Sequence to fold (917 residues):
Amino acid sequence: MNQKFSLNVNGEVHKVEADPDTPLLYVLRDNLGFNNPHFGCGLGQCGACTVHLDGKPAHSCRRPISQVGDRKIVTLAGLGTPENPHPLQAAYVAEQVPQCAYCINGWIMTAAAFLRDNKKPTDDEIRTALHRIKCRCGTHLAILRAVKRAAAMMG
Amino acid sequence: MTRHEKFATFSRRNLLKAGGALVVSFGAPLAFDSVHAADEATAVGTKPPLTPDQLSSYLAVDADGAVSAYFGKMDMGQGLSVAIRQMVAEELDVSLQSVKIFIGDTAISVNQGGASGSTGVQEGGRQMRMAAAEARRVLVAMAADKLGVPADQLSVIDGVVRGKDDAAKQISYAKLIGGQYFNVHLDWNGKYGNPLYAPGKAQPKDPKDHTIVGQPVPRDDIGPKVFARTNFVTDVKVPGMMHGRIIRPDTAGAVPVSVDESSIKHIPSAKVVWDKGFLGVVAEREWDAIKAAKGLKVTWSNATPPFIDQTALFDHIRSASARKHELGGKQAGDVDAAFQSATRLIQAEYQWPFQSHACMGPACALVDIKDGHVTCWSGTQKAHFVQEGLAAILQMPRDNVRVIWTTGPGSYGRNDADDCAMDAAVLARAAGRPVRLQYMRDQGTGWDPKAPASIHKVRAAIDASGNVVAWDFLSKGFSRVDVNTNGSNPKDTLAGQTLGVELKSGDGFGVPEQSYGFANKRTAWETIAPLLDRASPLRTAHMRDPVGPQIHFASESFMDEVAAALNVDPVEFRLRYVKDPRDLAVIKAAAEKAGWQTRPSPRKDQSGDQVSGRGIAYAQRGPTRVAVIAEVEVDRSTGRIWPRKFTVAHDCGQIINPDGLHHAIENNVVQATSRTLWEEVKFDHNNVTSVDWRTYPILEAAQAPRQVDIVLINRPEIAPSGAGEASSRPVPAAIANAVFDATGVRIRRAPFSPENVKSALS
Fold:
């Protein structure tokens, strides 16, 4: 049974009608056209669907739309733009990080929240913070270089 | 916000009529006024047929002088498209920025084999280089005619042909041919796919004159991906599109005997598509399709559980009758006689499990069947082969099928992408609507074609002076081509197999590629039948560096075992037997860079649970050679291995883009580390039980090496060869040899998971 929801995505409010059990991922992708959170596992194991809910990384594949409430949703597209990139986005380009790039929502959105709360992290702290996020192409070293570069940019 | 894929708004009929050329705006008049002087023999307004013997099949010059390159291979994220642009720009003497590349669209490119065997630069680039050189030759000849200056008195700078002595005499490529098509015949070798080669009369540049090739050029697809402005294959939408899901049995081999459609009545728009063993659903919304697939009540046939006990896998491989036995590689001398007269025999067996591509997302495809024409968006590595597969399964002429490769959720070989395109086609035909199908995670990991499990038996005969006088290597395993490397034939796809096509399992494995010059040498492989012959989640096919990691895990671990048995340093021991100078160079370069200390393994100066060691392995892959040194830390109490550092020396001939190459090598090493330490497809009697990231763990960030040092050996005088896979293959043995160095214990079975290592150490 469809219900009406109001979602704040990347600073804009959108009205949608959806079944309350629909995961946020499908509402973002199918109802609102925010394609960039990807379906990776539907199980909260990989991170490909990660968005920020009130600044905290969340698996949109597991979060029913009925449990989002008025939390502010930010997707990778809302994190920054080529003209005004988030330091992690700039670092990702500078380090030429991705191979297939399907995983990047998980790494960038998680690292963005981590770097906001942790200035000058060590390599081990970064690795721990990014535990369980998957990259199948093996770009882990480039990811770690980019996170360190972004950390330096964020001072 | 929804960005419909731009191709979907094109009228396909117009596009096909125009030969798919993107250089000419559809419906817009050609700029004939600027090309009236062009030689009709070399420039025409109508596109010549899209065949490999036409220059226009590879290159075109737009009215504004921009160059379009049409490439029949795909870039799976290793920067191939930049490398090809560099090669084309170099030969044409145009700026890199002026070269656009169109990849993997069957309407505008010929079948150059797709992403396959690390041949993107080696074969695909070679062809594009020759095409570009020929285009330059033709354009200079046209300019000579027009300017009244002999061709050898002309040079080209940034797409402008000018007199060497009289720069006032000049004409641009745009003026010469912009907006028209090349009408130039190439000397095609008659082959499609990787071996396709169609040079013109021109010779490519001398490498010493290269200014664009060899430069570290960044990829142009990364920015759009990082700013979420790239449409992946999962993001393509067309009007009227439905979402599909496929339903697989709990017991592999079972087929539906009854389907209760009323069980999904409550889901609006959901429809069942059932034909023999093929079962799926379609619905208007993706979440509805997922719910319908999950909720549909299906009675399955009472299939006999098809699989053996996994603990007996390697016993099964050892005892199964060989379906095919073949010698491979260079054989030498009389191996059996040499073993008879040897003073010492060393032998070992190595074991490698089934592995899954387990791509970051399960495969996705969109198929639109309209007015007798088919359009498919797919993340496949081989769009032209999928075109053939779709034509076969839909029983339509191949020319009525267009496959548009669209960047997908990762690809390392024959993953689930081709199966998905074929399944989507069956759904779309039944639904009478375009259908977008994405598999679910358990299908992506559980039902993708697997890298084959195998055992490898190696023997060495040693004489009284401690020399290796004979070498005997045998791989035995499931076939690398149980299903083929592409989906061009329904028999090689789950759609075909569930619909009941006649099966034909192929046979193939491989032997080590190394230049060890043993006087007596035999290398051979054997394949065995699949455990389930139809629609099996353990069907086997190509996965990155197909059978390379397992073969060289065995050959290079064994080389280390022999060195240790003879108390010789592992690098020194290899240098005694390696014959090829380029092989010697990579081994020496890696050892030098890593600061290798000459001594036999294992280390004898450590005690306690925390130990460390170093190991080397090397291999060729075609003309490419790689040596890898691993430095590992081992926790004897937990069995946990951490490869802290790798040093790689890599020679793939001429380097086109060192930056792209560096990333390709680093990612290969890390992915191969994941396969070595963690990856094993688990199964029970009924089915594969590795179905997600918990049951098929891969490397985590914390387990990644701290450092990968890479020595790139550039040989501009040698044709560039593949780099997409080669550095995967020495990694497992390099790690195993380092673990031996650290612990004195030989690991002969992958993966080197903590539990496997702990049990080996105890």
